[in-house]
Amino acid sequence: MLEAVYPPAFVRSSTFSVLHFHEPHRMLSPVLDRLAVRWLVTDVQLAIAGDPVRLADDGSALPDSPARGTPPAGSVAVAAGETVSRRIPAQPLRAVSVWFDEDLVTADTSARLRLDVTTPDGTVLTGYRAVRGLLPAGWHWVPVAGEEIPGGDGAGGDMTVSLTHVADDGTMHVGTSAAGVPTVFVMKPADDGLRLAHTSGVAVWENVDAVERVRFAPLAVVVPERAERLALLSQPWPADIVVLTDQAPHANPATAATGRVVAVADTIDEMSVVVESDGPGYLVVADAMQHGWNATVDGVAAPVLAADHAVVAVPVPAGRSEVRLVYDPPGLATGTAVTAASAVVVLGLAVVPPAYRRRQRRQRGARPT
């Protein structure tokens, strides 16, 4: 499923995945929602998801046109340690972009751009972007977790955005209007199911559309063919319908049951879940489907089904049920026995030679002189 999000996900290793979000739309994949991926971590250097808006000197949004991204008319030099600021209408945002009229070059390996957003109530929100020796001329985004800033309707007052060149050397040449006002884009939050929660060092995103890791699904569809199943799950799909790989153990009712997960007790390789419903359905757990899963429902063995292509589901009846899932990796018992036997052999090797030497000494001491 992760390869449906990012095809080279397992190029580096077949046992762990690496997802790159150079293209923000990958974070919006319904596959991640289905895998219950609640939090995403990206490099602050990467593109920021959202709706970019260029602001005029008075803070109003410039109309969307091909000329919107053209370079500003002027620029202002900002030396290392100095700050450039401007006021804009208070509004939720994810990042601010400024134009560099010239390359920013610095020998300071720890150089950063620091963005401070001071809201009308005096709260200061801060975000950073590393320079890493060079930022070429052009537009550059600096993220900030400002989605909770009130405003955007013209009645929230103004806030100040300030950009500081945190370095020992180098000069920023920040683009300005003809009137000398720094030209900025703001990245407004989009209706994309993401919330930028943290921007210090890395960008941490909350995926608010992710399903719960443990959920009750009253309905199921069976899609045996792999490509068709992945294509289906790559599109938005209701959380109350689980996609099964093999035939469902019971037919969908005429009216979908309602249910809820009451309690979850989770350890490293065992989970106990209490679920209540007014009809049959499935307990779906977003843990990897693999050999070694065993399940019981109210103490009776139950099948573990391949669900949503990569996770597990257990059919449950109407009423209150306690589902116990245990992961017992194949070969674990054999491996434990071999380890125990090896320990006995090693212990024997450690004990036998001293015992043998003591016996030899006793025999030598008993010989006649």
Radius of gyration in whole Å, from Cα? 30 Å
N→C terminal distance: 83 Å
Q: Helical element count?
A: 4
- What's the total count of β strands? 26
- Helical residues, percent: 10-25%
CATH topology tier name of the domain at 50-191: Jelly Rolls
The CATH architecture assignment of the domain at 50-191 turns out to be Sandwich
Strand content: 35-45%
Overview of this structure, please?
The chain is mainly β. Among the domains are: 50-191, Jelly Rolls, CATH 2.60.120; 214-327, Sandwich (Immunoglobulin-like), CATH 2.60.40. The chain has four helices and 26 strands. It has helices at residues 2-5, 30-34, 226-233, 332-366, and strands at 39-43, 51-54, 74-79, 83-89, 93-100, 104-105, 112-118, 124-130, 134-135, 138-146, 158-166, 171-176, 184-188, 194-198, 202-207, 214-217, 219-222, 241-244, 259-266, 270-277, 281-285, 293-297, 300-302, 305-307, 311-316, 319-327. It starts with a helix and ends with a helix.
Describe how the helices and strands are arranged.
Layout: H1 2-5, H2 30-34, E1 39-43, E2 51-54, E3 74-79, E4 83-89, E5 93-100, E6 104-105, E7 112-118, E8 124-130, E9 134-135, E10 138-146, E11 158-166, E12 171-176, E13 184-188, E14 194-198, E15 202-207, E16 214-217, E17 219-222, H3 226-233, E18 241-244, E19 259-266, E20 270-277, E21 281-285, E22 293-297, E23 300-302, E24 305-307, E25 311-316, E26 319-327, H4 332-366
Parallel strand pairs: 17-18
Antiparallel strand pairs: 1-15, 2-13, 3-12, 4-11, 5-10, 5-13, 6-9, 7-8, 7-11, 14-15, 16-21, 19-20, 20-26, 21-25, 22-23, 22-26, 24-25
